[in-house]
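Annotators were shown the component list below and the corresponding predicted structure, then asked to write short factual statements about the assembly.
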Amino acid sequence: DAGITQSPRHKVTETGTPVTLRCHQTENHRYMYWYRQDPGHGLRLIHYSYGVKDTDKGEVSDGYSVSRSKTEDFLLTLESATSSQTSVYFCAISEWSSVSTDTQYFGPGTRLTVL
Amino acid sequence: AQSVTQPDIHITVSEGASLELRCNYSYGATPYLFWYVQSPGQGLQLLLKYFSGDTLVQGIKGFEAEFKRSQSSFNLRKPSVHWSDAAEYFCAVGAGGYQKVTFGIGTKLQVIP
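Structure shown to annotators:
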């Protein structure tokens, strides 16, 4: 299994509070991703990073920000949590070479509940 | 834009029976295709992937998938299902490189004795 950890694994918070989720990898992969998983929607990309301090938006980025100051860490921040952000959040990593596709490997997930 | 359709949200099969999970994709060029499995409370695990070559791809846990360009399909199969295969299965399509991968909504598999 790819060396990916997420913290916390579970969190309950209140509407309006800031929340930061952490993804840590030991694979030295260049690319990192944050997804949210909701019933009936599968996985939707929030943000991704293609290098240290290089990030871009995914399809559901509103209300989220990210930062990547080191190769191994990718942080997802909800500046002011809302109930619609209750979800399971997954981090993924990938590496790309000229002979292989960008297979993504997933962390165990963080279950976030916003009351 | 790329997209994935998994037409079956829930499937129930008997243990020992064969399994086929359907996946149809939309993408303008040759796609990169994936099947992932997710057990309850777990992350996603890669079962198999296709990006070129033989259109019949073998994966882990006895699964295989066949890429059919003419039908824009990448169906997952297993000849004999085990109770431990009960999980949710996701098909995904990507453009290669580090571009984003688009996931289907998943098919939940129930295995009955």
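Statements collected:
1. The two ends of chain B are 41 Å apart (CA to CA).
2. Chain B has a mean pLDDT of 92.
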